[in-house]
Specification:
Keywords: Plant defense, Repeat
Number of helices: 9
Oligomer: single chain
Pfam families: LRR_14 (PF23598), LRR_8 (PF13855), LRR_RPS2 (PF23247)
């Protein structure tokens, strides 16, 4: 969605035809060209000194991103009344000059990745026409109260410098205190609620930010009154605050809580204290999902979580205290739209799906990626009967550090995974077998599997007791699986196989049906030390 806002900002400034451009790549800036130009790009250059007070009354667009700019002359913007787009991304500026107050027609201001920028000037409130403000990945620790004067703002994207910490203890950061020695709020009280025309709000904070955790509930109540909000990135540390928002938001349910869902075309919502959970090694944002929910340290699944899950296309469940699986106690249609699912550090979880209690039986019909990590009591991915169409779209499955599971797939589940392309199993000390099947597996098993990785499975003795046909398999990686010696027999039918990565000593431990077979497989062998 943000890309659309960027394009809109440029369209605002480029409505007229045949406007001249001014692109400076030389050592000096020719003032007469600068004065005449409508659209100016000084981006990605070794920038020469800027003129002190250029009279550019007709300038509409000024692009200064990704260059060596460190400071503006104090009166630089004084004679640019028509400027509509100012792009300063990835510059070294530490502040904006007071003359920015003269940009009364500015529509878009982009300050992302300006790491030296420590504060926004009070004059920011004079930009009454501003519709897009981006201040992400900078050095600022709070917003000025003057932000509340930007009544025409439609898109606000902001992130804050993290609180300084030593170990698990917060330390004093002088940038967080005002001149009276009082710690500043990360966003002043009753400021966000004044931005009534917001359509996109993105507030990116560290989950360990003490200042955000202290004020998040109030800010959440302020955005509840917005009627036109369709894109939200927000962290709710407390479940009560999240439930209040979902129940009362005029954007989430614009026609009342009993009406059908209409709002939010995209969201990235995090709920719950995230504590000291380790960062996931699976980046959900590499996927295309635009509706993301992260639920941390939960106990049960409150109605608000279930309601958002019905709209979500990606879901992270981290550190849940009581969940034995993902499906018990939730409506059958909860996961119908889900494309990506991450489940980590849920100590009580014994299976991902309990097919014995699911009413319709069909679960995760659209799920494409499933990442499972650190579930110490996990016994199976699916318990009970596997209904048709469940997991039918799954293309990537990752299982890591689950020390209780001994067998990964039942034969019944394997038959459903017709689109699985990537399978990675790692650091599961008790796993003995990948597929639990005593008879010959059908040739349709794993017809789409391309990449197969097995790492640090110290108890693994067999992939399957039967021979597998893997018509799409291209790459195998085996590491620290000393007990696995039957790979050649299991994977004899893999016509597209091009690479087998493994240690040389493991290779020699394999039970080759014949010297000819070993010679054929060696063509694909890539060993590591």
């Amino acid at each position: 969605m943000f890309v659309c806002f960027q394009r809109a900002a440029l369209r605002i400034a480029n409505r007229e035809e045949n406007l001249n451009f001014f692109v400076e790549n030389g050592a000096t800036i020719e003032i007469h060209k600068l004065i005449q130009a409508k659209r100016v790009s000084l981006a990605r250059t070794r920038l020469p000194p800027l003129p002190q007070k250029p009279k550019c009354a007709g300038m509409l667009t000024l692009l200064l991103h990704e260059n060596s700019l460190r400071e503006f002359p104090g009166q630089f913007f004084e004679y640019m009344p028509g400027l509509q787009v100012l792009w300063l991304r990835e510059t070294g500026i530490s502040g904006l000059p007071e003359s920015i107050s003269g940009l009364r027609n500015l529509r878009g201001l982009f300050l992302d990745n300006c790491s030296c920028l420590a504060v926004l000037p009070h004059q920011i409130g004079d930009l009454q026409s501003l519709k897009i403000l981006v201040v992400r990945h900078t050095g600022i620790s709070s917003l000025p109260s003057e932000i509340g004067r930007l009544g025409n703002l439609k898109c606000l994207r902001v992130s804050f410098k993290e609180d300084a910490t030593v170990g698990n203890n917060f330390t004093v950061n002088s940038g967080n205190f005002n001149q009276n020695g009082i710690e500043e709020r990360i966003i002043p009280r009753k400021i966000i609620e004044k931005l009534s025309k917001l359509e996109e709000l993105s507030i990116d904070v560290s989950p360990n930010s003490r200042r955000w955790n202290a004020n998040a509930d109030e800010i959440a109540r302020e955005i509840t009154i917005f009627k036109g909000l369709t894109h939200l990135h927000f962290y709710f540390p407390q479940m009560e605050s999240f439930e209040h928002f979902i129940q009362n938001s005029k954007s989430w349910k614009p026609n009342g809580e009993n009406e059908e869902f209409e709002g939010f075309r995209s969201f990235n919502i995090s709920v719950g204290q995230q504590g000291n959970s380790s960062a996931s090694d699976f980046n959900v944002f590499e996927c295309s999902a635009e509706k993301h929910l992260k639920f941390s340290a939960g106990d049960g699944f409150p109605g608000a979580v279930s309601e958002v899950l019905k709209q979500a296309t990606s879901f992270e469940l981290i550190g849940h205290v009581t969940a034995g699986n993902l499906t018990d106690g939730l409506p059958d249609d909860t996961f119908e739209e889900l494309e990506v699912c991450i489940v980590e550090e849920c100590d009580a979880m014994t299976s991902i799906v309990n097919g014995n209690t699911n009413t319709t039986g069909v679960v995760f019909p659209c799920l494409e990626k499933l990442h499972i990590k650190k579930l110490p009591n996990l016994v199976s991915i699916w318990e009970g009967t596997v209904a048709s169409e469940s997991f039918s779209a799954l293309s990537t499955l990752t299982l890591k550090e689950c020390q209780g599971i001994t067998k990964l797939f039942s034969l019944e589940l394997v038959r459903k995974l017709c689109k699985l392309q990537n399978l990675q199993v790692e650091d599961c000390a008790r796993i003995e077998k990948i597929i639990e099947a005593e008879s010959i597996v059908e040739s349709t098993a794993f017809p789409s599997l391309k990449n197969f990785q097995l790492c640090s499975l110290t108890s693994l003795s067999s992939i399957c007791d039967a021979s597998l046909e893997c018509p799409s398999l291209e790459r195998i990686l085996i590491k620290t699986c000393e007990g696995l010696t039957t790979l050649p027999r299991v994977l004899q039918k893999a016509p597209k196989l091009r690479e087998i990565q493994c240690a040389e000593d493991w290779w020699h431990q394999q039970e080759w049906p014949s010297n000819e077979t070993e010679k054929q497989f060696r063509t694909f062998h890539r060993h590591f030390r």
